[in-house]
Amino acid sequence: MNKWLKSILTLIVLMFGMFVGGTTSFAADKPHYTIATDTTYPPFEFQDKDGEYRGIDMDMLKAISKEEGFTYTLKPMSFNAGVQAIQAGQVDGLLAGMSITPEREKSFDFSVPYYKTGVVIAVNGKDKDNKSLDDLKGKKVAVKTGTAGAQYAQSIAKEYDLKLSFFNDSNTMYNDVKVGNTVAAFEDQPVMAYAINQGTDMNIITKPVNTGGYGFGVKKGANAELLKSFDKGYDKLVKSGEYDKIVQNYLGDNSYNYKKNAANEAAAKPTIWNILKENKSALLDGLFKTIQLTLIGIILASIWGMLLAVMGVMPSKIMRGISTSIIYLFRGLPMLVLAFFIYIGLPNLTGSKIPAFTAGVITLVLNEGAYIASFVKGGFLSVDKGQLEAARSLGMPYGKAMRKVVMPQGIRLTIPSFINQFIITLKDTSILSAIGIIELTQTGTLIIARNLQGFRVWLIIGAMYLIVITLLTWLSNWMEKRIK
Q1: For residue 484, what pLDDT is reported?
Q2: Which of 73, 215, 299, 331 could, after both became Cys, cross-link 370 (CB 3.0–4.6 A)?
C-alpha cells in the first residue's frame, strides 16, 4: 500500500516537472521573490492585450526591482486569496492596491505609503433615486472581499441597515450594480474613476472617505530585506521623478472626469471579433493550460481511482474500509475548499511551499479520483461473481484472477463514464483560478479587468468550453457505440 502511495506522489511530481511552464529565469546571484498581485484592479494592476502585466503597481515594481537589483515572479490571484497566501508563506509579498489599516498592520509589515486614496460609493449611471449615502438605507450594496471598501461598508452597515453582497473582483461587482441586484458599489476612488473613464456606466455619489495610503505588504516579521529594498527603490523613484511619470501615464493629472466621454464609451464597446483578435494569444494560452491540467489530472486521477476501486472490492475489510472512507471524504469536500486547503492550509502546517500548479493537480487527482473510484468499483462489482470463483477454482491467485478476468470486463463497462469524467474534470479546472492558476476562466477575468466587456468575453470563454466539450461528447458517443 505504501509503495502504491509513493508511486502516485512521484508521478504527480514528475508530471508537474514535465508540464508546468512559464517559469521565470533569474540570475543566481540576485535575490528572487514571489509577489502576489490582483491583476483585476486597474489602473494599479491589470494584464494588457499582449499578456504583459501593467498598471501603476506593476510599473513601479519593475522599476524598483531594477534599481535594487532583485528579480521576482508574479502570482496573479484574487485579493483575498493573496492575503491568505502571504499568511501561509506561499508568496513573499503582496502588491495589490492594499490599503494600510491598523487591523492589517497586526498581520503585515508595510512599506511606506506610495499612493493616497479613499473609498467612494458609485451607483448605476441610470439611477436617479440614490444620490447620497442616506438614500442607501435598508438597501443591498456590493463590496469586494477583503478591501478597504468592504471594511468601510461593514463599519456603517448597522447604522444604515445595509445588506452586503461580496465579490472577488471589481468587474463582477460593477455588473451586479448595473443589472440591479445591488444598488451601489463601495470602491477605491482611483479604481472607480478609472472604470468610469473606460466606459463603465456608473456615477460616484460620495466624496472619498477613510482616506489612507496604499502599501506593499509582507508577512509580519518576515522578508525584512525585501521590504527595505522596496522602500529604498520607491524613494529613488520619487526623487528622480519617475514615480510621478508612472502615475501620470495612467491617471493623467488626477483630476478625474466622473462622467463618461463619447470617445471612451465607444472604445469600451469593441466587437467580439476585435476582442478575439486582440486577445488570441492569451485565450489560446488559457485553453492550453486548461487542457494541460485536465490531461494530467484525469490520467493521475484514473490511476488513483482504480487503485481505490481495487481496494474497495478486496476480501479484506480493512482495505474496503480505507477505500470507502477516502472516497467518502473527497467526494464530500467541495473542490474549492480542497484547493485552498492544499495550497494555503498545508503550507501553514508544514512550512513548505506548494506551487499552485502542483496544488491544482493534487486537488484534481483527489477529487476526480474519488468519483472515478466509485464508478470503477461499480464496474468491478457488476461482473458476475461466478467468473471470479471459476478462475479461483482453476488455481488462479486472487490478484491474477482480478487482473485477467474481472478488471478487463469491469473497466470496459466504465469507458463511457471515463469520458464523462474527462468532461467534468475539464470544467472543474475553472475552480483552480482561485489559487492563481491562469487557465481559461482566469484568462477571461484578466481580459475583462482591462476592457470591462464582461458579457462579450464570457460569451467567448463559454463558446470555447462548449466546443471542446462537444468534441469530447462526440468521442464518448463513438466509443460507447464501439463497445456495445
Answers
A1: 58
A2: 331
The residue range of the domain holding 140 is 118-211
- List pLDDT tens digits, range 100-122: 888 889 999 999 999 988 899 99
pLDDT < 70 regions, the chain: 1-28, 252-270, 388-389, 399, 452, 480, 483-484
Question: In this predicted structure, what is the pLDDT of residue 420?
Answer: 85
Residues 122 and 101 in one domain: no
- Please, are residues 459 and 276 in contact by the beta-carbon 8 Å criterion? no
Integer angstrom CA distances of residue 175 from 170, 172, 230, 262: 9, 5, 35, 20
Q: 87 with 173, same domain?
A: no
Domain boundary among 232, 267, 302: 267
- DSSP codes, 7-72: HHHHHHHHHHHHH---PPP--TTS-EEEEEE-SEETTTEEE-TTS-EESHHHHHHHHHHHHHT-EE
DSSP 366-423: HHHHHHHHHHHHHHHHHS-HHHHHHHHHTT--HHHHIIIIIHHHHHHHTHHHHHHHHH
CA-CA distances (angstroms) from residue 8 to 67, 303, 340, 382?
A: 45, 8, 21, 27
Residues 6+ apart with CB under 8 A from 157: 163, 164
Domain count, the chain: 3
